[in-house]
Design a protein that fits this description.
The chain is mostly helical. It folds into 2 domains: about 35 residues; about 140 residues, no CATH class. The chain contains 7 helices and no strands. Helix 4 packs across helix 5 and helix 4 runs parallel beside helix 7. The two termini are about 35 Å apart.
């Protein structure tokens, strides 16, 4: 075990003791939360906010254009995910937001020529992750996936997935691309 892992273990035990929980209880809670799409999206969104690009947004990418691209690319990414990658969600639920984001960014580049770093800069510059229309659109898409996962749970897929609403992105901090 590396020094970093030892330090993490020691710190974890101190925190568990202060909270009066066992490492086993923490592990069960963590597994349950990580299987919840809303938690996945919230973690993804927090990660996105910490990933602000160093470059500036291209002048050609207005807020309206970015919103349009976010919604269109995420529509494409969610549809492709539902058709081709739904099994991935059952095997590794944490991969879903990463995969959807990658598909959405690829779509923007392939169809509109905007490299990921430039498009991300525009996402942050225009604060797309705070746009109410984008948030609502992404929540609808994520709710769709959540409903599919729940309905498929009876067929041996994705048991345990679900919970109310899914935070937010596709491109922009709500489960999709951002």
């Amino acid at each position: 075990m590396s020094e970093e892992e030892k330090a993490y273990e020691a710190s974890s035990h101190i925190i568990f003791d202060k909270l009066c929980i066992t490492p086993e209880n923490f592990e069960r809670s963590q597994q349950k939360l990580l299987a919840d799409p809303a938690t996945q999206m919230e973690l993804f969104n927090l990660g996105i906010k910490m990933e602000q690009p160093a470059s500036s947004a291209p002048e050609d990418l207005s807020k309206e254009k970015v919103v349009e691209l976010v919604m269109s690319s995420n529509d494409f990414a969610f549809d492709l995910f539902k058709k081709e990658y739904l099994q991935v969600m059952a095997q590794d639920p944490m991969l879903m937001p990463v995969l959807i984001s990658a598909i959405a960014h690829d779509w923007v580049f392939k169809n509109h020529g905007w490299p990921e770093d430039q498009f991300k800069a525009a996402l942050f510059s225009h604060k797309i992750y705070e746009d109410a229309n984008v948030a609502q659109h992404m929540q609808r898409k994520q709710f769709e996936l959540m409903m599919m996962s729940q309905s498929m749970a009876g067929y041996g897929m994705m048991g345990g997935m679900g919970g109310p609403g899914m935070g937010g992105p596709g491109m922009g901090g709500y489960g999709g691309m951002m």
